[in-house]
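Hey team,

Filing this mostly as a record. A colleague (T.K.) asked me to run one chain through the structure pipeline before their review meeting, and I want the input and output archived in the tracker in case anyone asks later how it was produced. No errors, nothing strange. Just documentation.

Input sequence:
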Amino acid sequence: MPKKQRIWGTLDPFFQGGPVMGRIVANTAFLTALLAADIFDEYHFFLPDQKAMDALGKNLKRVAPGPARDKRFRIMPRRELPAMLRATAYHCFHLSDCIANQPFLARARNLYSANIFPVTGVIHSLSYARYPEAFLRHLWPGTTARDCIVCTSGDGRMAVEHHFARLREGFGLTGASHPAPVLAEIPLAVDTDALAPGKPNPDGPVRLLAFGRISHTSKMDLVPLVRALHRLVQDGLDPASVELVLAGWDDSRSVHYLDTLKHLAQNASIPLTVELRPSEAEKRKLFQSADIFVSIADNPQETFGITLAEAGAFGLPVVASRYDGYKDIVAHGETGLLVPTTVPERTPNLDAMATLLFDSEYHLGLAQQTAVSVPDLAEALRALIQSPELRRAMGAAARKRVESAFSWPSVIARYVALWDDLWRADADPGPLRDIPHPLAPDYGRLFGHYGSRVPSAGLRFKTGRTGEAFYRDRDYPNLYAGLHDAIDLDVVRKIAFFARKPVDSATLISKVSGMAPHLHDTQVEYHILWALKQDILQTEEQ
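Output structure:
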């Protein structure tokens, strides 16, 4: 008996352009690692346009030449999704985020696929003001126990739970009638083979590296870090014994902010180096030449903290705020030191205004109410600056922790186990077929009154002049680009044949469905209306 194929599908390219951010890096690394593990027989991508398809094709040839050569990648226009769902037994679909398309993909699966395969999507930032609308889409009767949101941290998982609880409370929804997807917890990861520790430099100053977006509105405010170092200098630390390195990406809004950091460091006599937009090779040198990695996230846009895992892979001890996913990555006292943060209990003014403001405005307002303890930060830095032995021990422990918990092979294995486990949940496709998604427009109900009649209103059809010529192969209807996946001309030919004598719409739909069982009744009606538009059919009174 032939082995059943395992086919993985997605609506996303995963390889994305734009500014270097954690989400983009994580998505690219995930797909690269999945293809390196090569778990599946085929990989199907359904993309919105030809430009995206061409770009993905080039990337796949670059990162996975073997499967590309063996033609195990299929890159298709998204409009082909219904036909492929009907024809293909997918093992799972995975999306690069849970925000944009996951519930609507689940609806398409419920309608077209013979099997309710798992649909998963991963979280990234969760704090955007419009995201409650996105999470509301998940709470609908077509959600199954095989639908899953993958949370990259424990705090991220709790935030998703809070989104669902608040939506149910605010809209009066019950879990029975509006189920939520399953929540799983799988972290992001790094390529531990590519990130090797550097050689210590015992003769130079202790280098403190802060790497990431240099932005007080979207990542972290670094002023408390400079203040903490100033405290140490005031307490007797020789400023020449340390060097603060700020590296990563900024934007035009950060110019004044960078100037502020430079002036504060200068006033405190702290040596400061700024490295903007480093290449991958330059980034590697920055990490390998550092002694301590520092990250004091205070912004809810951060959910995991990929730079902390990178630092651990480079064998660096970490001083970080006790915040979000940082708490999962750093084992306090073993691989680094976590610094307490104090956050607001309620934020009614920002809650009321966030949807009316730019993202950077309300994120800045939230971050400036999140206080990283400067005295505790200073003490954590002091402990590592003064003890090379502690730095080495914590750095070695960090490397081991990342290898075991945050390397891509281990994380991909957890995804594969998740997709297999989701198949064990009950999911009967029958009752799900006709459950529409309430946030997808019902165009028939919304705009049906625009016309003057519908097929079910006592209409009878017969073959028109073009239809008679068509089924005798003397004419050929015009089919626009973009409709080839919606209109099957063989089905249209059958419609023309069945309507040689006048027939009512219900009978015609029944006859065509018997000859084309792969089409839903509404799809048959689409063919009938299109045939009417092309003069292949006409109503009897015409």
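Quick notes for T.K.: The chain has a mean pLDDT of 93. DSSP finds 22 helices and 18 strands in the chain.
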